[in-house]
Amino acid sequence: RRGRVPPPEGGTPMSVNPELLRALEQAIQAEIEGYHFYTMSAAATSDAQGKAMFEKLAKDEVQHAEFLRAQHRALEATGRVDRIIEIAGESSFDSGAPFFSAQFEQRAADAHFEMTALSVGAQLEADAIRFYAEQADKAEDPEVAAFFRELSTWETGHHDLLVTQMRELEQEYWAANRFAPF
Hints:
Layout: E1 3-5, E2 14-16, H1 18-44, H2 48-78, H3 102-106, H4 112-138, H5 142-176
Antiparallel strand pairs: 1-2
């Protein structure tokens, strides 16, 4: 069932798709959970460079959640996504830049938490990418589909960063812990 939005001056009422609103609510919740996860990860690592990167990821999650809240309000008010609203201070990560310091790599054997945090973070971002792609595929409105594809692209940056860092460290981690990946 679609709710009714008051019409713009002299226009006809617009429909608000409640499934779309629920999708945005789910996305907001996922960003909040991501924020808490990255904040916890920043607090738990002893590597200053890793801490700074997790804090940056947490900050991005807050910005994403605020953007999604603004879009939710726009949908409730107008029945449409607002293409003028932008993410405040959107950061760009260099997925090739080292996440952790050189000293961290030297103590790779003890990096259990950090390796787990990278893995879990990558999975959270992969889930978000998949969710947004599914929403884009379900969208009847081409503008809404484009909006969700754009959201999927956001999360791809975080995902790529985390996977790159995980791959950079896994050889040292496996060797230091005498793991055999076969």
